[in-house]
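Illustration: Cysteine--tRNA ligase.
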Amino acid sequence: MKLYNSLTRKVEDFSPLNTETVTMYTCGPTVYDYAHVGNFRTYALSDFINRVLLFNGNRVKFIMNLTDVGHMTGDNLGDADTGEDRMEKSVVKEGRTAIEIANFYAQKFIQDYDKMNFIHPEKFTRATEYIEEQVRLVKILEEKGFTYTTSDGVYFDTSKFESYGQLSGYTTDNVMEGARVEINPEKKHPTDFALWKFSPINVKRSQEWASPWGTGFPGWHLECSAMSLAELGNTLDIHVGGEDLRMTHHQNEIAQSESATGKKFVRYWVHGAHMMVDGGRMGKSLGNAYTITDIEKKGFDPMVLRYFFMTSQYRSKLNFTWDALQSAQNALRRLYELARGYKREESAKASKDYIKKFGDKINDDLNMPEALAVVWEMIKSELEEPEKLATLLKMDSVLGLRIEEHLAYDTPQKVLDVAKMRSEYRKAGIWDKADVARKQILEMGYEVEDLPDGKFKIKRKM
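Result:
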């Protein structure tokens, strides 16, 4: 398997530190709001890596975090230590406790995660459940001389970490263009970042904890280091995230983790490119940060979005449009229809030649567009139907399109009965009852298609 390593800026052969288990960590959502389709492109990248590793015979220990404290709104402006805590802001906005908000959006995220058919990590870690580990990590950094204290928190001194900026190119002398720097005049260097933030004077936050330095809450960057080190050890094989996290968040994770342990933190950094909408930026303020629910309301199954993600290589920008999603739906429907029509034989084996072609593409830095091309090449080939189906199902262990669920099975009698009743209503011109019957069929997971001769055909809903 080859992966582009953001740290070395090269495509490299992947080899795990421990041949028995690959360790992988993915930066998950901040659970103060719904995750949008752009976020899910990153989680799809993580799922494809996981599935390719499993396809190759690896065992994977995979962790994803859920940030439920400490992610400040200043992150959007170039300084993640400023602004408001996103969770605290939602407390005021929604009139619920931080725990209630976190639980609600975390549950909704996992529901959407399941709709996308992503394999669950071994654990969804929540920042508030690792406060002790985070305090311990700050203590270690303090003892080693990497910290200093200001009036608003404990900060990491980036000048003490010699390789700061290796991942991002953003150093104490080369500040990222457009970033708001020196907002806090007490910071020694623009790149220094908060490890522990103090609660504002005379303000009672929804989430705050006692610490050796004062009552407060952990810095956003600290959380991921503490959770990944606790769950996966000092050195991770793979760390996944969106490209927006590379410049600051992931660079700071490296600095604090390696300063604390004295060991390399991550061996392969994998970052996915942004997704645009209609050729422009996606954002909640623009009203185009579409959610999984939004696409479902438009009549698209989440598997269509998954297929759409595979039409572009993860390091290339992807432009979301409703027309593009419709094209993906047309292709996926065709794939399901063909698979449904294939004759199935339990003894049939997958084609070694096509599985090798497919494997070569997915192992070439996750070249999913070319992997899909191999799928369609195989479908158009002269292979016998049972072999085509066996090959397609093997490929779907990586594609994750739930092809097995769309194969031709006997239609339940209850569905047939409702469909026949609907047909009679249509013949009698009782259109309202015919429509009610159609909705009942949809709720049972099937679709009914009316044919020109007055008959009908039933198929599983996509």
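Reading the tokens back as a structure: The domain at 2-272 is CATH 3.40.50.620 (Rossmann fold).
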